[in-house]
Amino acid sequence: MDFNGRRITAIIENALLEDRATRDATSYACIDPNQRASATILAKQDCVLAGIGCVARILDVYAALDGAVTSHYEVTTHPEIFDGVRLHKGQSVAVIRHNARVILSCERVILNFLQRMSGIATLTRKFVEAVSGTKARILDTRKTVPGLRVIDKYAVRCGGGQNHRLDLSDGVLIKNNHIALAGGIVPAIERALRNRRGSQILEVEVRTADELEDALSHGAEAILLDNMSAEEVRRAVERCAKLERRIPLECSGGIRLENVRAYAETGVDFISIGLLTHSPQAADMSMRVSPA
Predict the structure, then answer these.
(1) Rounded CA separation 168/184 (Å)
(2) Residues 83, 152, 211, 226: which is the catalytic one?
(3) 175 labelled catalytic
(4) For the chain, what percentages of helix, strand and coil (3-state, to nearest 5) are there?
(5) What is the pTM (predicted TM-score) of this model?
(6) Would residue 108 show up in a list of annotated catalytic residues for this protein?
(7) 70-96 pLDDT tens trace
(8) What is the domain extent for residue 38?
């Protein structure tokens, strides 16, 4: 992840502006402007780390927004601390040495990024471990917080998952509403085959065995099995195994930690899970600040 990139910089800038970080009334009122401080970020639970690179970038963007020359800072981490590593409760994530006012003004934004991203990575890792030993790969979806998709999907990768489409331009996926408006699966596929850009794979969402047959017989190149039971997915896998061409199979809908293993054992290639990014629990972290 390039935390210096334009997209990430814009996300961080918006977060700092939202919190009016450069107008921190409390820190301005009670902290000496020349005070130096040391801040330790701590994991308060076992979790998978994601977003460590945002810490220094937040301080840099704050300095740009502040418009003043701020004092030199250091962000130090142990060599064994990096995105994707498993943290233990009480473990130090990073130490910041900087102007005290700046640390306090950026504290919440730093923790918000680390906690959300690490929460996504932690949940993703649980799903990845649950399907270990099968060929199934865990995918995310576009069910992300508006404006935060790039960091949400990065966090999924830190947890060992894979990214599905980043956005609507990133592949052809014919879903139920496209089918309804196009007049059915067959006309939707036929039109998509004529109009798709370049060599984008044409994936079709199906909900029944009959829809699967229609999709396969009219040129679908990948199949999304939506809201099917594990047994229905198994039958779909067996059906596609008889084809002369290989059809990647993905399933989604109603899949949780409690049942993901059953879906993985059907032989499906991918399992897409929206709750990785729409319902993660933030990892519990804190920042302890003391005079330097």
Answers:
(1) 21
(2) 226
(3) yes
(4) 40, 20, 40
(5) 0.96
(6) yes
(7) 668 999 999 999 999 999 999 999 999
(8) 6-120+281-291
